[in-house]
Amino acid sequence: MARFLPQEIAMPFTVRARHLHGHHDGRPIDEPSPEAAALAYIEAFAHDVDEEETVAVIVRDDDTGREQCFRVDLETGETAPCG
User: Fold this and answer.
1) Is the pLDDT of residue 41 over 70?
2) What does the pLDDT read at residue 7?
3) CA distances from 30 to 4, 53, 69, 78 (A)
4) What are the strands of the beta sheet with 11-17, ordered from one edge?
5) How far, CA to CA in Å, does 52 sit from each of 45, 55, 66, 68, 72?
6) Structure pTM?
7) Looking at residue 4, what is its pLDDT?
8) When comparing pLDDT for 27 and 24, which is higher?
9) Which range among 12-21, 24-33, 52-61, 72-81 shows the weakest confidence by mean pLDDT?
10) Which residue has the higher pLDDT, 19 or 56?
11) Letter string b/e over residues 45-57, b meaning 16 or more CB atoms within 10 A of that residue's CB
12) Are strands 79-81 and 11-17 parallel, antiparallel or unpaired?
């Protein structure tokens, strides 16, 4: 008998590189978590960010308006809260 796992539900986020504040409205990205949205932004819009080892991005939850900052390691894809 086959088992079906529930799919993660994508939520709407708007993501931008932190250094683009005021110059960029961000990119809409639907992902299941803020961390996944940060990584998807880096993968899809790498030309929008500087060529550094890590990049800080701001992820805004479009449903709640809550913003979070994440640092994404460009080599490994690991995400961590900005500190």
Assistant:
1) yes
2) 67
3) 22, 25, 17, 19
4) 27-31, 11-17, 54-61, 67-73, 79-81
5) 14, 7, 26, 20, 10
6) 0.78
7) 56
8) 27
9) 12-21
10) 56
11) beebbeeeebbeb
12) unpaired
Q: What is the pLDDT of residue 43?
A: 86
Cβ-based neighbour number of residue 62 at 10 Å:
14
Return all residues near 7 (Cβ < 8 A) that are at least 6 apart.
none
Gap between the Cα atoms of 73 and 37, Å rounded: 14
Which two structure tokens, joined as six digits, stand for 48?
């929008």
- Paired with 15 in beta bridges are 27, 59
Which helix (H) or strand (E) segment holds residue 71: the answer is: strand 67-73
Task: Report the alpha-carbon angle 54-77-73, nearest 5.
Answer: 15
Place of tokens 């993660």: 8
Q: What are the structure tokens assigned to 42, written together?
A: 């880096």
